[in-house]
Every structure is written in structure tokens, then in C-alpha cells.
């Protein structure tokens, strides 16, 4: 991958402006050997809206992704009551990712929503913030899970407490059915080391999440919104299990119920057709955050 493609790397007719629907995009025709980074393309075309003619990507405005990352950060700060962790999403190019720490920057002159861009080897492409220490949790998942559009690493306190007792997070309500027969658990891992990042990805398997003993969680989704809500539901499910076990035995949802619910969800997806998915839950939290309001946490 070339970090800074020169003008010579592009065809003479490479850059041309075009309006698509109600949005304005820059359409870039790139030679097959070139996969430019976001930073490089923005430098060349002066826009964060672009479509690549080669079919590599058709993605929305980078500023929109940044806004979604910032919203997810605010949701997780409130829900988890913890400042440690990072929220990330795959870049429009697919060969890098954008990442935003949950905590504010060490440099108080930088805005809270300052983002970093990394390639899939863990090398910084752009950004001014202090770099994340556990970058290999992210690089490994983006390389090994092509279906992953967003990765979150965080330290959900109740979920971490639950697995410390030897128990697992299992689906006991509808929003936790997504975790299948239970969220996999690994020994303590630390994403500063590449081998630990690879171990975490392997331990997650096909699940949406992984709990690491004595540390925290890695959670994924197709979108920032989905990864964020998966994280919220992970922590809330852990709380519900602890509450249930304080008065009795917490039983997982029966498999026949799971199958019925999955059929209902599949029918909803089919009925939606080509329309983009909507998330009333995300929209609810997003509206509150934009108004400077919060909600009662469990």
C-alpha cells in the first residue's frame, strides 16, 4: 500500500467531479496497483466524499464516520462509566481504519473527537492524538474478519466481574440472542503484542464479542452503531445475569425460542429489501447526546 500516491500514479483523467443523488462526491479512477489512504486521497482531491471506480468501496462521508465514532464514545462513557478503550471503524478504502479513544486527548488543545488513521499492520497514517497501546486487537480483527466494519475494545466492569467468577455471558433476553451459546472467554491478553491480538481474534471465532479475563472485551459489528449497541447489550446482559443469580438460577433462552426470534428478524430484513437498516435504539441515544441529555443506566 502506498501512503502518499503522487499525481503520476493517477491517470490523466483520474479526477472529475460528479453529483450523485443529493450528495456531492468526487469520483476517482485509480490504477489497479494503487490503494490510496484516506489522508492521501483527501490531499489530492480536497474532499472526504469519494467513490472509487474500481469497486473497492462506496462509502459515506468521513466526517459522518467521525460523528458516529464520537457518538459511540459518548454512549459508552455513560453506559460503562469507564474512560478506557477505543472505538474504531474500517475506512472507506478498506485497507485502513479510523480509531477514537474513549478518553479525552492528553493534549487539551486537541478536540475530543480527534481521530487517528492506521493501516492494517498497525502503522499510523494520520492523526495528532496519543497512539493506542493495544493496536493489535484492531489490526488482527480487520484482517481476519472481512465482515467486520467496526471494532471496539473496552473494559465493561460488570462483564469483567462476571467472568472472574468462572461464569459466561449467555443469552437470557432478546437483545443477547446475538451472543449465541455464550460469549467466548480467553485468558488475560494484551493488545500491545501482535501475538495476543491474533490469539484474541482466534478465541472470538465467529462471535460478536470476546471477554478476556482480568482485562476487558473486544466487540465487533458491521457498523459503528451495531458494534456500539453490541457492547451496550454485552454489559447489560452481564448485569441481568448477576441480578437473576442473586435470587435464583439464570437460565438461558431455550433454543426453540431463539430460532423463532431469528425467523422474525430474518423476515424483517427481507421485508426491508434494499433500504438501509435502521436502529431506533441508536437513534434514541444519538438524539439525547446531541441535545446534551443522558438517560438512566441500569
Would you give an account of this structure?
The protein is of the alpha+beta class and 298 residues long. It has helices at residues 38-45, 62-80, 135-144, 157-164, 194-204, 224-245, 255-272, 280-290; strands spanning 15-20, 23-28, 50-52, 85-90, 96-101, 116-119, 124-126, 150-154, 185-186, 209-212, 216-221. α2 crosses α8 (280-290) and α3 crosses α5.
Q: What's the N-to-C terminus distance?
A: 45 Å
Tell me the Rg in angstroms.
Answer: 20 Å
Level-2 CATH architecture of the largest domain:
3-Layer(aba) Sandwich
CATH topology of the largest domain: L-fuculose-1-phosphate Aldolase
Q: How many structural domains can be distinguished in the coordinates?
A: 2
Secondary-structure map:
Elements: E1 15-20, E2 23-28, H1 38-45, E3 50-52, H2 62-80, E4 85-90, E5 96-101, E6 116-119, E7 124-126, H3 135-144, E8 150-154, H4 157-164, E9 185-186, H5 194-204, E10 209-212, E11 216-221, H6 224-245, H7 255-272, H8 280-290
Parallel strand pairs: 2-3, 9-10
Antiparallel strand pairs: 1-2, 4-5, 4-8, 5-6, 6-7, 8-11, 10-11
Key structural traits:
L-fuculose-1-phosphate Aldolase, 17% strand, eight-stranded mixed beta sheet, alpha+beta, 298 residues, three-stranded mixed beta sheet, disordered N terminus
What's this, in brief?
With 298 residues, the protein is an alpha+beta fold.
